[in-house]
Design a protein that fits this description.
single chain; mainly alpha; Rhopdopsin 7-helix transmembrane proteins; 256 residues
Length: 256
């Protein structure tokens, strides 16, 4: 095992250890109160709901592209991993739209479940692309399971009156730490590194926009930070699709 491998393991273990050392984190009820609650075309919380169309489009486009590669003879782990990623993105669009239409812990659970699917599939693909192909593939199912269980655990603890977001927080933010570390430490395929960096920056920016939801909406009352979060995060997923388009021939040759 190389020093680079050990660094990844240390960061993962340290992050999990820090989360375990914290007190349980319950869902703040104020989270469900968004700045922009306008009805648009008869849709409550319209802009926060309708902006999720970008996720649906990106996810469906990505799945259609991968399906076309598969029909042309491409096979292999990356097709599966990226397929799970874009399926997660598509489901984020549906889950997030449902959540914003009826904001509650119950609807938020479905939104977060699809998010963990995308997070874990992306992390698996990054490991496959840059660290070790077989390891990334072997981790796909366990990572997806851990992501789903983190949401189930949160929902169960909320129903019991002692909500705990710590496992979900690890699932959401650990990839934001590990993926940049992988990009810095390991060699990556051509036309890959820049697009994944763009995705990471877009997601980090989207979380910033989410945090300043009300402050941004107060500037003119035109668009809220949360709506812009959806737009920027969806554009980030589009970077992955663009990267795959640029590497179409490479993916075909690797998976035949």
């Amino acid at each position: 095992m190389t020093a680079k491998h050990l660094a990844l393991i240390f960061v993962a273990v340290a992050t999990i250890g820090i989360a375990c050392a914290l007190k349980p984190i319950a869902q703040d009820p104020a989270y469900h109160v968004f700045a922009d609650q306008r009805t648009v075309f008869g849709v409550a919380n319209g802009y926060n709901v309708l902006s999720n169309l970008l996720f649906i489009i990106s996810g469906a486009w990505g799945l259609a592209f991968l399906l076309r590669l598969w029909r042309q003879g491409a096979r292999g782990e990356l097709i599966l991993e990226y397929g799970m990623f874009f399926a997660g993105i598509f489901l984020i669009g549906l889950g997030s739209a449902w959540y914003h239409l009826h904001p509650s812990n119950a609807s938020l659970a479905w939104d977060r479940l699809s998010m963990t699917m995308a997070f874990m599939a992306l992390l698996s693909s990054v490991i496959s692309e840059s660290v070790h192909r077989k390891t990334g593939v072997l981790l796909l199912v366990p990572l997806l399971a851990v992501g789903g269980l983190s949401v189930a655990y949160w929902a169960w603890t909320e129903q019991g009156g002692h909500g705990d977001l710590r496992p979900y927080a690890v699932v959401q933010f650990l990839p934001l730490v590990l993926i940049p570390l992988v990009l810095l430490l390991y060699k990556t395929p051509g036309n890959y590194r820049a697009y994944i960096w763009l995705l990471v920056v877009a997601y980090a920016g989207s979380k910033t926009l989410e945090y300043f939801d009300k402050a941004i909406y107060s500037i003119g009352g035109t668009v809220s930070g949360h709506t812009l979060k959806h737009v920027l995060a969806a554009l980030g997923t589009g970077c992955v699709l663009k990267m795959l388009y640029n590497r179409k021939n490479e993916l075909m040759s690797k998976h035949k």
